[in-house]
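Q: Please design a sequence for this.
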């Protein structure tokens, strides 16, 4: 099996950028699936034991790689004040509709536009393994989480046959674009969707699911042991984990060491993702940095991608 990215030599930054662009383009064209009320309810209940009501009510919670925001919706319904970030603007346009009260940022998990210790809780479900540098994304997530804060992380499982399948599949995804995959192949995923989501998906949704599982430009795989070690390196303690459906992923709960302060009254504090300075000053539709850089609110989404 291919070794994980973070165990290898440093990547060429231009390759990393290129990979990130490809991933962004992929999810702009094929946002992750929209399951509607069933999927929102499923995730709302699934996360309950890792995120009890007391950790969410009136707390500032960020969903990194929110996609179209169905998981964020479930947490908002339980009383969380949600902030969503994603690299795909198309996904965020739908997230805006599903989460009218959330703060939404177009940005990358690898350079988050937030100050240190900003959030009470953080979720990152099925995202960091699609970035060119999962380790860096983990460090960023740990940085923006406040002491005592809960981090729920979903990552593909190193010890699962899916690891081998994803890598063996590379020649197919290179030769055949997702839009050319025949409909009958796409429909082979229907039993998986029905069993896991408890509902059938239409062909367009199934193609989005297939895209995420096999056509996405990047996927890395990680063991619980490795994430526990990363946690220790970043000052977080793993306090629990669950195997996800068929064991292809792990969902882990980490807590940032240190006592929680100011819980429940935090405000979003934004920093310049280009220079790391902040907090930036917010006006109605602008965040301004002393370096001259600014973020603009357009159609309800803050533009925070470094150029
Ligand atoms: C499998 S989807 C998961 C979406 C959502 N968390 C969910 O489970 O419904 C992966 C998401 O990660 C986003 N993503 C990929 N690379 C990213 C990055 N570097 N920064 C932020 N988001 C990223 C994609 O745009 C996509 O929306």
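A: Design:
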């Amino acid at each position: 099996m291919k070794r994980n990215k973070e165990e290898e030599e440093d990547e060429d930054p231009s390759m990393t950028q290129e990979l990130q662009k490809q991933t962004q383009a992929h999810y702009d064209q094929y946002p992750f699936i929209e399951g509607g009320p069933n999927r929102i309810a499923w995730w709302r209940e699934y996360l309950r034991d890792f995120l009890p009501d007391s950790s969410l009510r009136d707390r500032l919670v960020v969903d990194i790689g929110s996609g179209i925001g169905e998981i964020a919706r479930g947490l908002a319904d339980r009383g969380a004040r949600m902030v969503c970030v994603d690299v795909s603007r198309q996904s965020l346009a739908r997230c805006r509709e599903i989460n009218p009260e959330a703060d939404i940022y177009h940005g990358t998990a690898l350079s988050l536009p937030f100050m240190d210790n900003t959030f009470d809780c953080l979720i990152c479900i099925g995202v960091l393994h699609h970035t060119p540098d999962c380790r860096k994304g983990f460090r960023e997530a740990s940085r923006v989480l406040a002491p005592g804060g809960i981090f729920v992380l979903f990552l593909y499982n190193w010890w699962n046959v899916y690891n081998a399948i994803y890598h063996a599949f590379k020649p197919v995804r290179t030769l055949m674009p997702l839009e050319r995959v025949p409909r009958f192949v796409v429909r082979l995923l229907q039993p998986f969707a029905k069993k896991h989501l408890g509902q059938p998906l239409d062909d367009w949704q199934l193609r989005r699911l297939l895209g995420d599982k096999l056509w996405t430009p990047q996927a890395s795989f990680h063991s619980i042991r490795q994430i526990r070690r990363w946690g220790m390196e970043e000052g977080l303690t793993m306090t629990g984990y669950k195997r996800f459906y068929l064991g292809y992923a792990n969902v882990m709960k980490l807590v940032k060491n240190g006592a929680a302060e100011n819980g429940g009254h935090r405000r979003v504090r934004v920093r310049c993702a280009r220079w790391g300075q902040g907090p930036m000053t917010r006006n109605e539709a602008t965040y301004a940095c002393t370096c001259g850089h600014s973020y603009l609110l357009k159609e309800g989404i803050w533009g925070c991608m470094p150029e």
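Q: Thanks. Anything notable?
A: The longest strand covers residues 145-156. DSSP finds twelve helices and eleven strands in the chain.
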